[in-house]
Amino acid sequence: MSMSKVNKYLFPCALFASIALTACGEAPQQQQHALPVDIFTVEAKDIPLVDHLTGRANPTRKAEVRPQVTGILQKRLFEEGSTVQQGQQLYQIDPSVYEANVKSAQASLASAKANLHSTQLRAERYSSLLKEKAVSKQEYDDAQASYLSAKASVQSAEAALSKANIDLAYTKVYAPITGTINRSNLTEGALASVGQATPLTTIQQLDPMYVDLGQSSDDYRKLKAKLTDGKLLIDGKATVDVYFSDGTKYAHPGTLEFAEVSVDQSTDMVNLRAIVPNPDHVLLPGTFLRADINQGIQPNSLLVIANGVQREATGLSYAYVLNDKNIVERRNIKVGAEYDKYFVVTEGLKAGDRVITSNTQKIRDGMPVMPIDPNAQAQQQQQQAK
């Protein structure tokens, strides 16, 4: 056989062998150059459902102290900023005019009683004379009318005396509630008037305190739906953890008291009220606070780590998931509440899905990658440390 014929047969065989070798080495080469990525496995857990809200502290009781009678303030009998007890006298208004009114009412009552006695005797006498026909029926009726009128006058005088005594008692102004009293708006010698716009002072009960919070009507509706559907486990009242504006946690947790049944039309918020112990009066009325409401336990919640969730400018959330062949798949997802460093997934993922958490800017849908086993990596680090 000539050399040209040998070359004629060898060239196709060499070409085939070259193609075969290239094909055989392609998979390992692709595997070798696949982009390494960290993964997180989606898991189902029972988690506490916490709502992060903001609001302000308010006293549980607040009373404006106002004068019930008009007069000159003679004395202020409390220390501003101190704690006063219910029934403690706070002010003394000049009682001289009201003492005179009481004496006048007492004299009027005495006169009315004397007149009553006289008309009563006359009516009784006329009653006897009428039986003997010594007086006319008209005279008897007039005597009875005078008696009844005198009796009504006594009742009127008694009412006038009672009112005069009440007005005299109002010259002593007492604390309507127990609490911390503010500064006095009037000083000794000033005129206190019934119906004045400015109260004499204000008393606020600071222990416990209310914390009024705002929750969006949509979140409130979703919470009610979870309760109705049995997707939320609640044991008693929801607890509330309070934080100051600088992030410092307040020492005493509170409890959620109630939610209002109406929505604020200007903010579309529902007002929630928590009651919080305040034994040291650290919380003051009007303080801006942040509160975490522990609304219950949400069972079997699917959790994905936060850095595994990607977002588009439109607000759409998605995640890169590895299939069983280590090929990237993009999944559009919906996330709900945030828990620690995780999001609760409500749609798009299931337990066991492997979500990519690194190199997310470099990967694309359908791209092969090489997952990094976090357990193996941790063991390698421990061996290197040894």
Give the SSE map.
Blueprint: H1 3-33, E1 35-41, E2 43-65, E3 71-76, E4 83-84, E5 89-93, H2 96-131, H3 137-169, E6 172-174, E7 179-181, E8 191-192, E9 201-216, H4 217-229, E10 239-244, E11 254-259, E12 269-276, E13 288-305, E14 310-311, E15 317-322, E16 328-339, E17 342-347, E18 354-356, E19 369-372, H5 374-385
Parallel strand pairs: 1-19
Antiparallel strand pairs: 1-18, 2-9, 2-13, 3-5, 3-8, 4-7, 5-6, 7-9, 9-12, 10-11, 10-13, 11-12, 13-17, 14-15, 15-16, 15-18, 16-17
Helix pairs in contact: 2-3
Structural features, described:
- Helix content is 32%, strand content 36%.
- The protein contains five helices and 19 strands.
- It has helices at residues 3-33, 96-131, 137-169, 217-229, 374-385; strands spanning 35-41, 43-65, 71-76, 83-84, 89-93, 172-174, 179-181, 191-192, 201-216, 239-244, 254-259, 269-276, 288-305, 310-311, 317-322, 328-339, 342-347, 354-356, 369-372.
- The longest helix has 36 residues, at 96-131.
- It is elongated, with a radius of gyration of 44 Å.
- The two termini are 68 Å apart.
